Amino acid sequence: MDLLSLEQDLQGNAYPGRGLVIGTSADGKKAITAYFIMGRSENSRNRVFVMDGEGLRTEAFDPSKMKDPSLIIYAPVRVLGHDTIVTNGDQTDTVYDMMKTGSTFQQALRTRQFEPDEPNFTPRISGLLHVENNAFCYEMSILKSAYGDPGACQRFTFQFEAVKGEGHFIHTYLGDGKPLPSFAGEPKRVTIEDDIDTFTDKVWNSLNDDNKVSLFVRYIDITNGLYETRIVNKNAK
Predict the structure, then answer these.
(1) Dihedral of the CA atoms 109, 111, 115, 116 (nearest 10)?
(2) Counting Cβ atoms within 10 Å, is residue 166 exposed (0-12), middle (13-18) or buried (19+)?
(3) What whole-number distance in Å separates Cα of residue 144 and Cα of residue 150?
(4) Model confidence pTM above 0.85
(5) Alpha-carbon distance 204 to 143, whole Å?
(6) Is residue 44 within 8 Å of residue 64, measured between CB atoms?
(7) Which of 82, 145, 179, 231 could be joined to 132 by an S-S link, Cβ 3.0–4.6 Å?
(8) pLDDT tens digits for 50-65?
């Protein structure tokens, strides 16, 4: 698989939907994740990211305009010991709760399927970063409808060892459309920067101005587990 510029890939797609990046800094010292949300409707665009302890949650920017909180209000990020869970829906809680009782990331996601938003059947994308004993590895998952069939779920899980300066990118949609076409294939292999602010700016500035809503970025020190976080909201409070 070719190594892509994340910046160029985002610039070439006006509507990737929700996106998840996981990888390693070029110096090999940081485990990195980024998660962004986009929206076409007023309801989807009426959101911000806010910190929730070590994790993250979505919140209505203007509560008076919130029409339907289902599928758009959830905790995208939760931390469980050495693991950071990042997803595009309430499966974050499923993974967290089941891993807490001894299940694996993959076992937890076997209990879930794509979102019930016919006709799009938006895929559920999820990631798990594991940082322990000066080492980093990660998993990514996508749960998607089998070619638009509401009765059949395809579940794919990918496991990766850390590679300096590289990561993987998965998103919900191939692009805009009616219905929205689901992501297909393996997570894309992409370049990652060392500096959190440079990376954050590049991702945010590469997202379509009309459709982007919020971005979360976290750099975790592989040697000690300490982290830095950046949040960018189009709807600034």
Answers:
(1) 170
(2) middle
(3) 10
(4) yes
(5) 26
(6) no
(7) 82
(8) 999 999 999 999 999 9
